[in-house]
Hints:
The structure holds two protein chains of two kinds.
Chain A: E1 4-7, E2 10-11, E3 19-25, E4 33-38, E5 45-49, E6 53-54, E7 62-67, E8 70-75, E9 84-90, E10 97-98, E11 102-104
Parallel strand pairs in A: 2-11
Antiparallel strand pairs in A: 1-3, 3-8, 4-5, 4-9, 5-6, 7-8, 9-10, 9-11
Chain B: E1 3-7, E2 11-12, E3 18-25, E4 33-39, E5 45-52, E6 57-59, E7 67-72, E8 77-82, E9 91-98, E10 108-109, E11 113-117
Amino acid sequence: DIQMTQSPLSLSPSVGDRVTITCRASQNIKTYLNWYQQSPGQAPKLLVSSASRLEIGVPSRFSGTASGTDFTLTITSLQPEDSATYYCQQSYTFPFTFGPGTKVEIK
Amino acid sequence: QVHLQESGPGLLKPSETLSLTCTISGGSIDTNYWTWVRQSPGKGLEWIGYIYYAGDMKIHPSLKSRATISVDMSNNQFSLRLNSVTAADTAVYYCARSYSGTYSYFDLWGRGTLVTVSS
Lengths: 107, 119
């Protein structure tokens, strides 16, 4: 199975901060990498697909980039409603796998 | 607008069979791929498998001997069956939609249903 790692696993930024979450795949997944946001008690919500394609309706402060097997989700100017856990997920090969999640708790 | 809703028993005993159904409203089951994902309490997300109405199905290798996903075209539903459950199968189970098998993403999710396995 392809292992997905994320860093950091948690962070406590302030409103207005720029936040960067990194996801690394254990092998080449091209750009078949998706990002999800999960608020407490809610289902995951797709933010970014194919490493950098922002879903319709997702604020433009979210963006995704890729470099080899490293992927980054960036939130510019963090807002209170961005407090959530963020997961990456590869869809390149079976079984599909998710990263462990990065919990963003706003100070 | 398409909605997904999971349903099924919330409490099972060890060795019983987990049976969940996802009802699709506002859309048709024959236009997408349909997936099950679970999340153990306090843990991350685990992909279980997917099905396409025409028969394409994939199950996580670790669950392949116990899990089956099926489609009910007449009721616009798809289902998950997981045999011989143990406490390790306690989780919130989500159904989700994707536009294809591989190289895709889950763009619509149900609210999830908690299944607890306990004697």
